[in-house]
Design a protein that fits this description.
The chain has about 180 residues and is mostly beta strands. Helices cover about 5% and strands about 60% of the residues. It is built from one helix and 14 strands; from the N terminus they run E-E-E-E-H-E-E-E-E-E-E-E-E-E-E. It has an eight-stranded antiparallel beta barrel. The protein has a five-stranded antiparallel sheet with strand order 10-11-12-13-14, with no helix packed on it. The chain is globular, with a radius of gyration of 16 Å. It starts with a strand and ends with a strand.
Length: about 180
Amino acid sequence: MLVGAWRRSGLILGGKRAVDHCDVIWLQTPEWFIDVRLRLDPTSTPPPDGLGARFAREMAFAGIGIWDAPVMTWEHRFDTRPVLPLDANPLVAEDGVMVERGTIPDGGQDVPFAEEWLRLTGDDVTWRADPTADGVRVEVGRWAAEISEIQPGGPSRAVRYDHLDGEWVAVGSVPD
């Protein structure tokens, strides 16, 4: 049900719709996933702190996805951040949008968030995952990304690709 390419189409923090500063692509195979978040406009100024700043950062992470309805657990094996966070939240289909809901700590309290995900591919999409000891490349439809450790134990570096005119074209990387 979740195999495919997904794009974050909405972000709600503390009950309020937030400006999304990143183009977020999540690629999911039956086992492996990769999530790459690239700034929409590298010249813009995202919030300097708080929840908005956390969701505006360029980052990428990949690993094994485990679906136990309604909870999706993303086991991070590779991450551009130095700490691999716990990442498990309910995913619910609402009006053609997959909605992930959770909480995130901020200022000593847990603040609710929701990420809205639009599916970019059909149910019969072609996919491929090529894991190695220090990284993975995931291709789903016309999107691909790869992540690999910069040094053993992380952090990692990621590159996102779009398939254009018969070839894979790099559209961005983290860190840049």
